[in-house]
Every structure is written in structure tokens, then in C-alpha cells.
Design brief:
The structure holds three protein chains of three kinds.
Chain A (H helix, E strand, L loop, with lengths): L6 H12 L2 H10 L1 H18 L1 H4 L31 H37 L1 H15 L3 H12 L3 H28 L2 H8 L4 H12 L1 H24 L11 H11 L6 H28 L6
Chain B lengths: L1 H18 L10 E6 L14 H7 L7 E3 L11 E3 L2 E6 L5 E6 L13 H11 L23 E8 L2 E6 L6 H5 L13 H6 L7 E7 L3 E6 L13 E6 L3 H9 L13 H10 L4 E15 L9 H10 L2 H9 L21 H4 L9 H14 L8 E8 L2 H14 L4 E8 L4 H6 L5 E7 L5 H8 L14 H12 L3 H18 L4 E11 L3 E2 L18 E2 L2
Parallel strand pairs in B: 1-10, 12-13, 12-14
Antiparallel strand pairs in B: 2-3, 4-5, 5-7, 6-7, 8-9, 9-10, 11-14, 11-15, 16-17
Helix pairs in contact in B: 8-11, 15-16
Chain C lengths: L1 H28 L4 H7 L6 H10 L6 H13 L13 H5 L3 H28 L4 H15 L2 H16 L12 H35 L2 H8 L4 H39 L4 H11 L2 H29 L8
Classes of the chains: A mainly alpha, B alpha+beta, C mainly alpha.
Chain lengths: 297, 534, 315
């Protein structure tokens, strides 16, 4: 993750991203895959936000006559063993995925930024200690760390978010730290220091904004892995508990019982997870291309 | 795809044998069975789950056992096992067993009356220092609360002394839960690689993977067992288990593993498979925390009892095949439950659901609840499908009486701890009954002194009646008292029973002589006379 | 160089030590301990029996004592006793390691065989339809949860072959073992191959822009030979790093895949042990994974140093 050291370049990239409709159109034409990704992510967010209006049924209400119903006009994606509408459950599942994905990315990001900034800016023994701590966290693969964290906190929505967030910290803090390290010596930071600006303010006003681009790139990628990690944890039974309709758990339950008798129960939640993560990955790639021209491909 | 080929060949072989007439038992072959999860340990006395009993019962012998050829366990169909014969004294308080001689434990040491004493001393907390560790937890302590002493007459004679007559005592000794342990084996061995006198020896118990048993060549029943061994493969995913069975990789499914939706699939994919539906004597019930608000109010418990409509549970969960009853398994398979016409007179069991619901609504309104002011309750249950699924239906039904239930899915490993702490308002629970017998059920679940009475239900009248029926030798009189207890339990809302479970167990046609019993799942797994026609 | 190695080795020990403390403390935060669970299977909780089990397992001792006992045991190669099976933890863990290792190795081979050539093709044909197609495929590979992919494979094999690859623990022939493992390995490997392909592609592109490639081209070397001889050789260097990243990535994939395919490997065992709160098993497997991860990273760095003469590690 290279950092962007030219303000002008950042400004240009920023303008491209947050610009007018024509700017967005331009971007979409230039990065068609990214546009597809953005569309998927937007769809995902809208589904999550308006789940109550989109879902035709209450995702938790049971109906004995619809048990294991095949996909049909009244049950678009079929119904599960308890006769709960699969489409409604998947729509509500988007909300869980978004909550956990965004929650973990933001929490992990915030902690990572704080640690990385502190580590890179203060340096010395603070840097040494935090870096060793990050070493420890990075000695385990993401899923294993999240697994152990989730198990030790106990299964709940909040704890799943915390577990994944902690597992995301090291990456963020490393990126921020390395940006900070090189920014610290930049002329504009020294200029700020020369006019008597406080160190904390320099860090917040000058250093942090300049680490934004790599952070956005990383954040998008991490949103995808947070969603995937949640799905995996729930699949293993250590993530989101009932009654929340989590895609991963829906998948593990139907996988345990209905692979043969009701394959649609296995297929659709998996499609939902894959499509969402695919969207964030496409968007993440495009973001990197836009924001980090040196990596442009 | 080598496997595929063997499946085809196996199928052909099966076809060819169908034509041949019934043969005498064949010796040999390994029974390949599936297991649903990792047994918590191999020590039957320490566990209360079929996960342990089913694979390990064939390692042991009892003193006596239920006639394995009978479809129903019953007190008058008890046959000798390690005990050659038994006799009661005049006042029915001393039960003396004559033991078989020349029986050896799997490690070659001789079996004697001392081993019987060791086992029951440990179960009643009277173990000598050396055997302290033999049994470190004891879920069926209440079974032996009437057992005062075990005395060794000679190497081949042992006497059980009871506090008062108890006609259920012998049936309890006949249960799959009552094997004889050895004095000289440690608890740790019993839990990991047990030693018994039974038809099969444990070769390996690989956690989460497999349990391997081989034929005990020195088995004291001459000519038995027929099988060379039994391979249990632990497959936690039910779909995978069923697929393996359908593909012919397994000869026997786990007990009651095939639900009714799955049965259709098995039948279509493996039309020759033998599947038997049987009542499990495991009932789905409600536990209500009667010591804490709001359900310390008996009116509220009454409303709860009235609100349950048993039919949708039955329809969704077991395609309407379940038996509806009170605490005891109802007829035809149950020996002590109420007949349907009598059952219908119990509160909440009448056919007119609308009337029951109206009554429940009236109670709720009188307590200040209503459509705009629902009672918010967490419905706790174990986080496994067989618990969770009925809980979801329950929540749905409780909406009708202004109860807004939220599912609290409890991590399965801490479920009993939570229940014991009374850390719940309403819980959905499953209760398995080891022997279809009033003593086993009532003493375990409803007597005020039982540690498994986790609702803390206390009714001196019920306690008295339980003791009364236990001491009663006449079946007709006893049945009447049992009915009276059932009525009181329903009225008090003590663990309202929703339905009694039913499920299918399947095996390949080559498996012969397997007899399942229809009033308990825990007593039919000795497997010594099962043989393979391959 | 020598002192660099010492420094790295010290850091590794430090990291592993930190991990041991972290995992030990985290496990003791878990709601519900092993005694609860052991007692729970009896269907009741008898406080006296529970207290005895707690004492038997040594859980009543101060946490520092418990930690020291574990860590000194570990240093001597004694992993302690598994709580559930009551057998030495090493006997429970050791037989499961080769299963996972074989699976991981096979998955790694798959992902390299698939990922590297596709990455090269994608880079050489940059911005063509083929490139776009391959990029979408690789991205989708990263997006498919491996447990879902595994399930789809299971469903397909049921549909088409009427059977499932069932992993049994009996000794089998090499070819049988290979066939059985190759299906789950493909499920894990597909996801990893996506990562390899993406990184191969970008490092290929990076190298192709370098001056010496242009030089080679201007000297008249054919396009193909430049691409494959010069560029690929240099691009392989970062691929070595990728394989390091892979190691961590693969372990995550193994956990879910072993669960789906019922493979008795060490990764699935970790999940089971977590559910059972079997601390001695969890602690030791986590340490094993940490050790493997840290070690692989170290070896990758060494390989990098050996392969790329430009990199010098100043003392």
C-alpha cells in the first residue's frame, strides 16, 4: 500500500470521487467493473436499510403449511423447514451483514488509525511496544483470531463485531503507521511545527488526512473480509445467534439438514454472501485504481 | 470414483441375496454405523445422552435386561444377563441375584459380585476410597434413592437391600443406563476406553472421528456376538450422514436420526433400506420459572398452559405423527400414559383451541396485558434445531395471548447451567425417559428432592403420591395414582408437555435381527445377536 | 546478516510468548468453562460433583500457576492432558496434523498451478477481454466463501455421482487418499488461487514496465520470450511472498472446509475444542498455528533474501 504524497494528486482523485454526476459517469465508463461493484454495494445497502419494506413476510414468523416450500410466486426463494420465507430472511440478513461488516470495519479502522498514528508519530518505545502487539495479533490468520475472540466473548451481535474488529486492527495500524512515518518528515509537517502547532494537532490536521486514500482502499477491502468472516463464524456456530437472520447461520443450518431435500436453502444464502463480497471487492479494486494511481493497472 | 464402483457391486450383491430364503445367522462382518456427535465420554453411568449409550451399551452387560426380542420394554419381560436368577424376600425389600460364573472382563480379570457392589456403591455415593473416581458425576442418583445397601454373599451372590418395596427397581436395573462396571478399572479409563464384560471390546475411541469395537472372542454367551466388529463413524452434519447411508457407506443410521422430511428422501434414494418409525419417549416440554416474576403468578402459568395448540407443533415438526400426552408416554406404545378420552379432560388438552385461547386471553386481560400492552418474555432454549424449531413455533403461538416472546438461543454447552441457575423465564426443553416407568420419570423430573427437577417444582401432595405409587405393587391401583399425579402436574403447569417425539432409524437390508424398542431409545443397543447377511 | 537472524529469531520468540499469554487469558474469559460443559452432558449440575471436576482439572488453582505449568510443559514438549478425552493432548493433536498438512499442501499446489499461469496470461493480455474475464473469475474466487463452494461441490457430487467423498480414517492407498483429498483441496485452493493470480498479475505488470524489459525488447528479443523468460522470472519473486501470505489464508480456509467435508484434521479439531472449552487442545493448536505462520513468514523473508541479490539486510 503505497502512500500518496502529492496533495495535488489526492485532490484530483478526491474531486473525481466526490464530484458531480458527470464526474461519476466518467468514472463509471473508465472503470466499468468498479461501477458494477458500486451498484451491487448500493443495492446491498438499500436492501439492508429498507428491509422492512422490501421483505414480503416477517422473517421470523412460521407457517406449518409452507414447510420446505419450493421457490414459487408466493415464496420467491422458497421457505425453510419452519415455513419462514427465505427471501424475507435473506433481505433481513443483509441488515445483519451490513451492521457487522460496517461496524467491524469502522471500529477496527478507528482503533487501527489511533494505534497506527500513535505508533508512527510518537515513535520510540511506544512504537516498539505497539508493533510487537500487532505482531502478536498478526501471528494468527484472520479467521482463527476472530474465532478465538468470538468464542471468548460469547455469541452475540456486538461481540461478533468486536471480535472481527480486533482481528482487522493490525492491517490498518500498519498502513497508517507507515504513512505517518514518512509524512512526519515532510516539509509541510515541519512547516506546521515551525509555526508552533501542537503535535496532536499536526497529527490530526496534517498527517491523518494524508493517510486517507490508502485507508479508504484498505477499508473497502476489509468490509468484504469482515462480511465474509462474519459468515464463516456464524457458519461455524460461533457468530450471530438466533433470532437474527444471519446468512452464514442460515447456510450452516440448511447445510446440516437439507442439502438433498431442499437445495435452494443452501444456494440462495450463499449467493447473497458471494454477491455482496464480490461487489465490495470490485469496488475496492476500482477505488485503488482511482485513489492510488501508482498501482494503476 | 472407485467408491462408486463398489457401491454398484454392493448393490448387485444385495439384489442376489434378496432371492435366497432366510438363512441361519451368519458369523462375521463389520457393522458400519453413523454417529451424530462426539459422545461426551464413554462412561454410560456418567452421562444422560443417547450419544453415549448407543455406541457403548454393547461393551457391557447388566445384571438383568429387557427382553431384547420384545418391541416394548416391560417389567414382566425382564431376562437374565449377568445374573442367572433373582429372588425377592418376603417383604419385598431384599433382592438377591445369583451371578453367572466364569465371566471375564475384557482385560482377562474375573468378574465377581464385588464388581456389582462397587458399581452401585459408587452410584449411591458409598464408594470405597479406591473407587472414588469410578463415577465422578451421577445423573441418575435418584434412581437409587431407595437403595440402602449392597451386600456380597459370595463371589456369585449379591443382595440389594431397599428401604421399602419398589416394583420399579428391577426395571431400572434392566435399563441400558445400568451396566455393571469393574472395581479394578479407573473412572478415567471408563470414560475414554472402557472395559466391560460385553460382546464387544473397545479398540479405539477417537474423539470427533470414530469409535471402533471388535468382537469379544471370550464372550460368555457362547457363539455370540455374530459381528466381527462395529465401526462407528462420527459425522456431525446430518446431510452428510444421510448421504453416506444412501450411498451404502453405512449399514445403520444413528438412533432416530431420520426425520420425516428426510425419510421421503431416503426411501426414494435407497428403496431397499429398512426404516422403522418409533416413539422415542423423549418429550418436548416447557419449563417455567415459577420462582421469579412474572411467572411466579399461577394465573399466568395457567394462561400459558391454555395457549398451547399442540397440533401445529406436531404437523410442522413430525408431520403429525407424534403422540400427544401428558408427562408419561401415552398409549399405544406407552404403558402408563392416559388414554385419549381421559387426556382430553386435562386443562389445555381439549379439542376446542379457540375456547382455550379465549380463556387464556381473559386471564391475560385480567392481569393488565392486552394487544397494546403485551408481556415481553425471553424464551430460552438450547441452540440446536430440535430445541430451537419448536421454540420458534411457541413464540408464534404466544403472540395470540399478548405475549411478545423473543428467542434466547443458549449455547448448548451451558444450557443446564443456565437452567439450574434459574436464569430464564420460559424455556423450551426436551426430556428423555430412560425407562417407560413412573418412578424413573416422576422421581427424576418432578419430585421436590430431585436434582433434575430443574424447574424447582414443589408440591407436597405430588411428592406423597409419587412415593405412594412407587410402593404400590398392584398395577391397576398404581395406574390410578399415576393418572392423579399427571392431572396435578398439568394443573400446576409443571413442565407442560407439548408432544412425545417420534423419528425413524434406518438400516440396510443386510442387517438382520435388529429389534428396536418403541417406548425407549436407550435400551436396545446390545447388538450381540445382530448379524450381517453379506 | 547473522545478527539480523538473531534479531528475527528473538522477535519470533517474543511474538509467540505474547500469543501464549493472549490465548491463555482469552480462553479464561469464555463464559462457561469446561467443568460446566462436562457436567452439562449429565443433564444436571450437581455443585459437589462440579467442584470435584474443577479440582481434578486443576482449574481452582491461580491462573498464573496454570499458565506457568502449561508454558513450562510446552517448553519440555509436554502439552498437558485434554480435558474431554483425558488423554495426553499431544496424542490427540499429533495424528491430525498430517491430515491438515496434506490438505494444505495439495491446496497450495492447486492454487499455484492455477494461479501463476492465469496471472501471467492476464498480465500479458492486459485490458483485453480475456484479462477482464480472468480478473472477474479471480475476484469471484475471493468472494465465494470456501464453505459454500465446498457445499456446492458436495451437492454436485451427490447429483452426478450419487455419492459424496467421505473421508474415512482407515489406511488407504496413496491414490485413494489423493482422490479423496483433492476435492476439498480444490475448494480451498480455488480461493487461494484467486489471490495468487491477482498478485502474480500485478507484479508481472510492475516488472514489465521496468527498464531492462524494455531494453530486452529493443534488443530484438521476441515478445513472448521477453514475457516469459525475463518478466516471469522476476515476477516470481513477489510470488514467493504471496505463498507466505497464503499460509495464513489457507488455514482459515481449512477450518471451514474440514468442517464441511468431515475431515479429521487439526483445523476442524480447533473449532470442536473451542466449542468444548477444551483449553489444553485450543491453546496448543493456536500456538501451533501461530508458530507455523510466524515460521513461514520468516522463511519467506529468507527466501527473498536469497533470491534477490538487491535486498541487503543491514545490521
Amino acid at each position: 500500500m503505497a502512500l500518496i504524497d502529492h496533495d495535488a494528486e489526492l485532490a484530483r482523485a478526491g474531486a473525481n470521487v466526490s464530484g458531480s454526476w458527470s464526474g461519476m459517469l466518467f468514472l463509471a465508463r473508465r472503470y466499468p467493473l468498479g461501477a458494477v461493484g458500486a451498484a451491487i454495494v448500493l443495492l446491498f445497502i438499500l436492501t439492508a436499510v429498507f428491509a422492512d419494506y422490501i421483505a414480503p413476510y416477517d422473517p421470523t414468523s412460521t407457517n406449518s403449511r409452507a414447510s420446505l416450500a419450493v421457490p414459487s410466486l408466493s415464496y420467491w426463494l422458497g421457505a425453510d423447514f419452519m415455513g419462514r420465507d427465505m427471501f424475507s430472511r435473506i433481505v433481513h440478513g443483509a441488515r445483519i451483514s451490513l451492521t457487522v461488516g460496517l461496524g467491524a470495519t469502522l471500529l477496527g479502522g478507528a482503533l487501527g488509525v489511533a494505534i497506527g498514528l500513535m505508533s508512527g508519530y510518537i515513535g520510540g518505545w511506544v512504537d516498539l511496544v505497539t508493533q510487537r502487539l500487532m505482531d502478536i495479533l498478526q501471528a494468527l490468520p484472520l479467521l482463527v483470531l476472530a474465532l478465538v475472540m468470538a468464542a471468548s466473548l460469547g455469541p452475540s451481535l456486538e461481540n461478533t463485531i468486536i471480535a472481527i474488529a480486533v482481528a482487522l486492527i493490525p492491517n490498518v495500524s500498519r498502513v497508517v503507521r507507515s504513512s505517518t512515518l514518512s509524512l512526519r518528515e515532510q516539509p509541510f509537517v515541519e512547516a506546521a511545527r515551525a509555526v508552533g502547532m501542537g503535535e496532536l494537532r499536526i497529527a490530526a490536521r496534517h498527517v491523518l488526512p494524508n493517510t486517507l486514500a490508502p485507508l479508504i482502499i484498505l477499508g473497502t477491502a476489509q468490509l468484504g473480509s469482515a462480511i465474509l468472516t462474519e459468515a464463516s463464524l456464524s457458519f461455524l456456530g460461533l457468530g450471530i445467534p438466533e433470532p437474527y437472520p444471519s446468512w452464514g447461520r442460515m447456510l450452516s443450518e440448511s447445510a446440516a439438514e437439507y442439502v438433498r431435500t431442499a437445495p435452494w436453502l443452501v444456494i440462495f444464502p450463499g449467493v447473497a454472501i458471494s454477491l455482496t463480497v464480490f461487489g465490495t471487492n470490485l469496488l475496492g479494486d476500482a477505488m485503488r485504481d482511482v485513489l492510488d494511481p501508482r498501482q494503476r493497472t | 470414483m472407485i467408491k462408486r464402483l463398489t457401491v454398484v457391486v454392493g448393490g448387485l450383491a444385495a439384489l442376489m441375496t434378496v432371492a435366497t430364503p432366510v438363512l441361519a445367522q451368519k458369523q462375521g462382518g463389520t457393522l458400519r454405523a453413523t454417529h451424530r456427535d462426539n459422545p461426551p465420554s464413554a462412561s454410560i453411568h456418567e452421562e444422560a445422552t443417547i450419544s453415549t449409550v448407543m455406541p457403548f451399551m454393547s461393551v457391557f452387560n447388566n445384571l438383568v435386561m429387557f427382553d431384547p426380542k420384545e418391541k416394548l420394554n416391560s417389567a414382566d419381560k425382564i431376562v437374565p444377563d449377568l445374573a442367572e436368577s433373582w429372588s425377592w424376600n418376603a417383604d419385598k425389600t431384599k433382592l438377591t441375584f445369583k451371578l453367572r460364573q466364569g465371566v471375564k472382563w475384557h482385560d482377562g480379570k474375573p468378574f465377581s459380585a464385588k464388581d456389582v457392589k462397587c458399581t452401585w456403591d459408587a452410584l449411591t455415593g458409598r464408594a470405597a476410597e479406591a473407587q472414588r473416581d469410578l463415577i465422578r458425576k451421577n445423573p441418575r442418583k435418584v434412581w437409587y434413592s431407595n437403595l440402602k445397601e449392597v451386600t456380597v454373599g459370595s463371589d456369585s451372590e449379591v443382595t440389594f437391600t431397599l428401604g421399602r418395596p419398589q416394583s420399579s427397581f428391577l426395571p431400572m436395573l434392566a435399563a441400558g443406563y445400568s451396566p455393571v462396571y469393574a472395581c479394578h478399572v479407573t473412572g478415567r479409563e471408563m470414560r475414554s476406553k472402557p472395559i466391560g464384560t460385553g460382546p464387544f471390546k473397545v479398540v479405539a475411541f477417537k474423539r470427533g472421528e470414530s469409535i471402533k469395537l471388535v468382537r469379544n472372542p471370550d464372550y460368555w454367551k457362547k457363539g455370540l456376538p455374530y459381528l466381527d466388529g462395529i465401526d462407528w463413524k462420527i459425522v456431525p452434519n446430518r446431510s452428510t450422514r444421510v448421504l453416506g447411508f444412501v450411498a451404502g457407506e453405512f449399514d445403520l443410521t444413528f438412533d432416530s436420526d431420520i426425520t420425516f422430511p428426510l425419510l421421503q428422501d431416503v426411501k426414494s434414494q435407497a428403496p431397499h433400506a429398512v426404516c422403522e418409525a418409533r416413539t422415542t419417549n423423549v418429550n418436548t416440554n416447557l419449563i417455567v420459572n415459577r420462582d421469579a416474576p412474572p411467572f411466579d403468578n399461577p394465573k399466568l402459568r395457567e394462561a400459558l398452559v391454555l395457549a398451547i395448540d399442540r397440533k401445529p407443533f406436531n404437523d410442522v415438526l413430525v408431520q403429525g405423527k407424534a403422540l400427544i400426552g401428558a408427562a408419561m408416554l401415552p398409549p399405544p406404545t406407552g404403558k402408563w400414559g392416559m388414554p385419549p378420552d381421559e387426556l382430553a379432560t386435562l386443562p389445555g388438552y381439549g379439542q376446542d383451541i379457540a375456547k382455550n385461547r379465549a380463556a387464556a386471553q381473559a386471564i391475560m386481560k385480567s392481569l393488565g396485558y392486552g394487544p397494546d400492552k403485551p408481556l415481553k418474555v425471553k424464551i430460552a432454549t438450547r441452540n440446536i434445531a430440535i430445541y430451537r424449531d419448536p421454540a420458534v413455533i411457541l413464540i408464534d403461538q404466544l403472540k395470540q395471548i399478548y405475549v411478545d416472546g423473543e428467542l434466547d438461543a443458549v449455547d448448548t454447552t451451558v444450557w443446564h447451567t443456565k437452567v439450574q441457575r434459574k436464569d430464564y423465564a420460559v424455556g423450551l426443553n426436551l426430556t428423555g425417559i430412560g425407562v417407560d416407568d413412573p418412578d424413573v420419570n416422576f422421581y427424576e423430573n418432578f419430585h421436590s428432592t430431585s436434582s433434575r427437577n430443574y424447574t424447582g417444582y414443589k408440591n407436597p401432595k405430588v411428592d406423597e403420591l409419587i412415593d405412594m405409587q412407587s410402593a404400590e405393587a398392584d398395577r391397576a391401583k398404581r395406574l390410578k395414582i399415576v393418572g392423579e399425579i399427571e392431572r396435578l402436574l398439568v394443573k400446576d403447569g409443571a413442565r407442560p408437555v407439548i408432544f412425545h417425539g417420534i423419528a425413524n432409524t434406518c438400516w440396510q437390508p443386510a442387517v438382520k435381527n435388529l429389534v428396536l424398542q418403541h417406548n425407549s431409545i436407550y435400551n436396545s443397543w446390545r447388538l450381540e445377536s445382530v448379524w450381517l447377511d453379506k | 546478516m547473522g545478527s539480523y537472524l538473531t534479531q528475527r529469531a528473538l522477535l519470533m520468540v517474543l511474538t509467540l510468548f505474547g500469543m501464549s499469554v493472549l490465548i491463555f487469558v482469552m480462553l479464561r474469559l469464555v463464559p462457561g468453562n469446561i467443568a460446566d460443559i462436562l457436567v452439562d452432558s449429565a443433564g444436571i449440575v450437581d455443585p459437589v460433583e462440579k467442584a470435584r471436576i474443577v479440582k481434578d482439572l486443576g482449574l481452582d488453582r491461580p491462573i498464573i500457576d496454570q499458565y506457568l505449568q502449561w508454558i513450562f510443559g510446552l517448553a519440555r514438549g509436554d502439552l498437558g492432558f485434554a480435558y474431554v478425552s483425558e488423554r495426553p493432548a499431544i496424542e490427540e493433536i499429533a495424528p491430525r496434523i498430517p491430515v491438515s498438512a496434506n490438505l494444505a499442501l495439495l491446496a497450495l499446489i492447486y492454487s499455484v498451478i492455477l494461479g501463476v499461469p492465469l496471472g501471467v496470461i492476464s498480465a500479458v493480455r492486459q485490458n483485453t477481454g480475456l484479462d477482464y474475464f480472468l480478473r472477474v473469475v479471480s475476484l469471484s474466487g475471493l468472494s465465494l466463501p470456501s464453505f459454500w463452494l465446498a457445499l456446492l461441490i458436495l451437492m454436485a457430487s451427490v447429483q452426478w455421482f450419487g455419492m459424496i467423498p467421505m473421508y474415512t480414517s482407515e489406511p488407504r492407498s496413496f491414490i485413494d487418499e489423493f482422490l479423496l483429498l483433492s476435492v476439498p483441496a480444490a475448494a480451498v485452493g480455488f480461493r487461494s488461487s484467486a489471490l495468487i493470480m491477482r498478485l502474480t498479475r500485478s507484479s508481472m505488470l510492475e516488472v514489465m514496465r521496468q527498464d531492462y524489459i524494455r531494453t530486452a525488447r529493443s534488443k530484438g528479443a521476441s515478445q513472448t520470450s521477453v514475457n516469459y523468460q525475463h518478466a516471469l522470472r522476476n515476477a516470481l519473486l513477489p510470488v514467493v511472498t504471496i505463498i507466505g501470505i497464503e499460509a495464513a489464508f489457507l488455514i482459515g480456509g481449512l477450518i471451514v472446509t474440514e468442517t464441511v467435508f468431515n475431515i479429521p484434521g487439526v483445523a476442524r479439531f480447533l473449532v470442536e475444542a473451542i466449542v468444548w472449552r477444551d483449553y489444553p487442545i485450543v491453546q496448543n493448536i493456536v500456538m501451533l498455528i501461530a508458530f507455523v505462520t510466524v515460521m513461514v513468514n520468516f522463511l519467506v523473508d529468507m527466501a527473498y533474501m536469497a533470491l534477490d541479490p538487491r535486498i541487503k539486510y543491514a545490521d
